[in-house]
Amino acid sequence: MSPMVDLMKKTVLLFTFVAVATTAYIAYGQVADLRERFDNFDSNKDGQISGDELSAAPILKKLDLDGNGSLTMIEAAKALKSKFSSKKTPATSTSAESGSERSLFNQLDKNKDGKLDSGEVPKKQWFSRLDRDSDGQVTFEEASAVVAEMRERGENLPRLPASSSPAMPATPVEVAETTEAPMILKGTTVGVSKLVADLPLCDLAGASETLSSRLKGSQGVVLAYFGATCPISGKLGPELARLEKEAADSNIRFILISPIKTESKEDIQKFISTHSLKSPVVHDQDGHITAALAATTTTEVFLIDTARTLLYRGAINDQYGLGYSKEKATKTYLRDALTALKNSRLPDIAATTAPGCALDIPKQTVAVKTDITYHQHISRILQTHCVECHHDKGVGPFSLTSYEDVIENASMIRKQVERGAMPPWFAANQPNENHSPWINDISLTPEDKSTLLTWLNSDRPRGDASLAPKPISYPDDWALGTPDAIIQLPNPVGIKAEGTMPYQFITAQTSFTEDRWVQGYEIQPTDKSVVHHVIVQVHAKGSKTRDRDEGSQGYWAAYVPGNAHHRWPESFAKKLPAGATVSFQIHYTPNGKATQDQLKMGLIFAKETPRYIVHTAAVSNPRLKIPAGEANHLEVKTQNVPIDMQVMAYMAHMHVRGKAFKFEVTPPGGKSEVLLDLPHYDFNWQLRYDYAKTRLIPQGSQMKITAIYDNSTNNPANPDPTKSVRWGPQTSDEMMIGYIEYFTPNAAWVTMK
Q1: Residues 6+ positions from 109 with CB-CB distance below 8 Å
Q2: What share of the chain is helix, strand, coil (3-state, %, to 5)?
Q3: Which whole number is the average pLDDT over 404-424?
Q4: Spatial CB neighbours of 738, under 8 Å, sequence gap ≥ 6
Q5: Of all helices (H) and strands (E), which one includes residue 79?
């Protein structure tokens, strides 16, 4: 390339940098673009444009306000604002901002001690950033200093909760996120560019070599973490195998690191063979590799060059994270870093977080002592709230029935409890509600949550085994007992290894010669790991069988993980007409290996004609329209209640852009009342909310459902934020359905009596 062409390209790049930087400073946005363009001039990646870098274009020296021969990004932003902004900042803005900050600080300071603790700051990552001296509390001065730096850098300031309750469903922006995607980090803060210790790497084949010896004769090494029983590791397995093969073609080696002490050699070998991985495997049982690298999850990868310099650490890509999956990755972090290494360049993105199963990294400080013990306290909490799914044959990814199980997964338990993702329960408490109205409420009380987290953050004493609760036994097959009848898919369904799958609509014909009353049902996938949810419809003999949009007119039965069966009380049942056709609409989620599923539904028949018939109605909004890029789009649908309804339960249904959902009712001549508020909706947990005592909704009432959707780039599960979205059956479409389960008297029972 000629010097003139090179100069022209740099000049174009500079003016792009100028334009973006100015906009970023004024609007406090586009930070990533600003940083990217600054880094293009910062060739040695020291965080400054200096020396020969400053001579790349004449205007750079003009941005050096203090004339010290070096230019920081903040300094450049200030100079650009001064040069290009047409409006002066009002003199009162600083004091106004300060007053606003003080007001927000006071609002968050619930106990009015003049400091914020982690429980008073809505998001854990905010607290970590504000707590500059890591003493576990934030003063107003600390918070103000951080906010000032964010303003200087042009960063978006966090949106904090309003002082009064919103009329619409509480926006989930302020609550713990149920999804977690890779987040870009500043590499130098997490060890990138540093010399990696010459780690001993003894693999399962018996070869004991240091990192430097394994680097000899190569272009570099990837230390790739995996968890043999971690679901996200499993999903990433096929891509890991592809990268392993492609890297080998460029003489870049992989070493696979298993960091879980208690994982068996059989579990590890099964993972390796399932994904056809060829590289050496190191079982880091004593944690020395994990400690040296400060690894955080079972999906993290580390790219190291032949000088033992850490070039990249973080996620493989963004296809899978906590609580979401994509058809394909939109960010290929490790692949891009490998390409950079092959071309003797530094990666554009040097570090990210890596959503996966959290590793239990010992803290630098001594763990606190506590009187809370596993046998006396923790086992009871887990048995009540977690073990129903987390046992050897449950749908949970790991068991929590023993002390050893809990220790093995302690870090992941702590992470999921802290972020509010586990146990899965999303109903907000209503004002003046002393007791939960929901009979199936599995949420942790504040006391239990505090007890569990205190123990997890302590030295985790086992305690006296004689104080342990009696173990619960779980059936090997049907949770409701042996069914009276089983309806199964006619043929197995093939599930691909990666990406996403369109919904499957499959029918099964029944052979009952007379109507049957069903008191309970249980849906059992033959491969639970790939079934996200199921909607079951019943079609009377002779009626048309068609895909009814996930039960927009109601449903007969439903399945989600942790909600696979239901039994109604004595004298209550649903009707299964003679000769009916049963349809299953199934959402499958590939988990990293090709498999098959042939799910079945077991039925428990009522012993006599029921007194009450159970129905499921739906309030739906098929005319919804969600604009492209909109982060908080509101949709509302109101419907008249045609009869007196004795309501038993609710269930909300949206797809991956769903963010919040609320049921409200206005009785004739009365005031509006919230029935169920889901301030953060989770597509992965479409739960029933069952009343402990049924609720009468009078005829003529107005039933209103309100939904909020996030169709922006901030939603990691969003298939395409550039498109407006309408109603449709696939995950890439959207829906808005409020299911209402209710009962009516059975005229046949009345006649019999």
Answers
A1: 115, 116, 120
A2: 25, 25, 50
A3: 91
A4: 618, 619, 620, 637, 650, 651, 652, 653, 661, 663, 703, 705
A5: helix 73-84
Name the percent of the chain lying above pLDDT 90: 56
Angle separating helix axes 73-84 and 140-153, nearest 10 degrees: 60
The pair of three-digit structure tokens given for residue 284, joined into one six-digit string: 């880091």
The pLDDT, as a whole number, for residue 699 is: 95
Written as one letter, the residue type at 71 is: L
CA pair distance 697, 623, nearest whole angstrom: 26
Burial class from Cβ neighbours inside 10 Å (0-12, 13-18, 19+) for residue 605 reads: middle
Residues 112-128: pLDDT tens digits? 677 887 767 766 667 77
Check pLDDT > 70 for residue 666. yes
628, two tokens: 């492209």
Residue with tokens 């010669």: 513
CA distance readout (Å), 555 to 98, 584, 652, 722: 54, 10, 12, 32
**Cβ atoms < 10 Å from Cβ of 127:** 18
H or E stretch including 8?
helix 3-27
Beta-carbon neighbour count of residue 284 at 10 Å? 23
**Which residues make Cβ contacts (< 8 Å) with residue 264, sequence separation at least 6?**
none
pLDDT digits (tens, 9 = 90+) for 595-635: 999 999 999 999 999 999 999 999 999 999 999 999 999 99
Q: What angle do CA 127, 133, 136 make, to 5 degrees?
A: 50
Compute the distance between CA of residue 188 and CA of residue 49 in angstroms, rounded to an integer.
17
Cα separations in angstroms, 356 against 177, 181, 320, 332, 456: 15, 10, 9, 16, 19
d(CA 145, CA 125) in angstroms, rounded, equals 17
Determine how many CB atoms are found less than 10 A away from the CB of residue 76: 23
Which residue, 453, 441, 459, 445, is CA-closest to 378? 453
* Number of Cα atoms under 13 Å in the Cβ half of residue 173: 16
Whether residue 31 has pLDDT greater than 70: no
Length of the chain in residues, anyone? 753
Report the alpha-carbon distance of residue 634 to residue 544 in Å, rounded.
35
How many whole angstroms separate alpha carbon 497 and alpha carbon 237?
A: 9
The number of angstroms, rounded, from the C-alpha of 145 to the middle of its chain's C-alpha atoms is 31
